[in-house]
Amino acid sequence: MSIYSDYIKSVIRTVPDWPQPGVNFRDITPVLQNSAAFRKLIDSFVHRYQEMEIDAIAAIDARGFIIGAPLAYELGCSFVPVRKKGKLPFKTISETYTLEYGESTVELHSDAFREGDRILVMDDLIATGGTMLAACKLIERTGGIVVETAAIIDLPELGGSAKIREEGHSVFAACSFTEAE
Question: Where is the Phosphoribosyltransferase domain (predicted)?
Fold first, then answer.
């Protein structure tokens, strides 16, 4: 967690029973609307990564882009989008992963990274970990090295961050929520 964790968490809105009954949706929109909160969010990631050797931020479609792009700018590294299937115009590689009810696929341009590039994988939220792990697999297939996986919010009770760690990747989140919060 970052020095701003409690503050960021206090600005995130919880929407009960959305998109279905029993689900507490963690809405980052208020953080984006509040310039001080957005600055603290970006700063929390900058402070963590400014002294690490990172060649690129691989941000996951679409909310990972919101944080990944300004972070790449601040760190002076490149920004690479990991997109939903069919959204990239050049030659791609893809990885399919399991969702609660079905499957999904993410893609990466085949020339996104060079062998040995050090990559930070960024998304807005870690729930079950499927999307993050699929992105890590794509990066590793290109010869890139996943330095860490990062998100605004971790929902540890859903097991995603533990699953990511079990696969050998470090996890950082600006804040976390339990279901009771």
Answer: 33-156
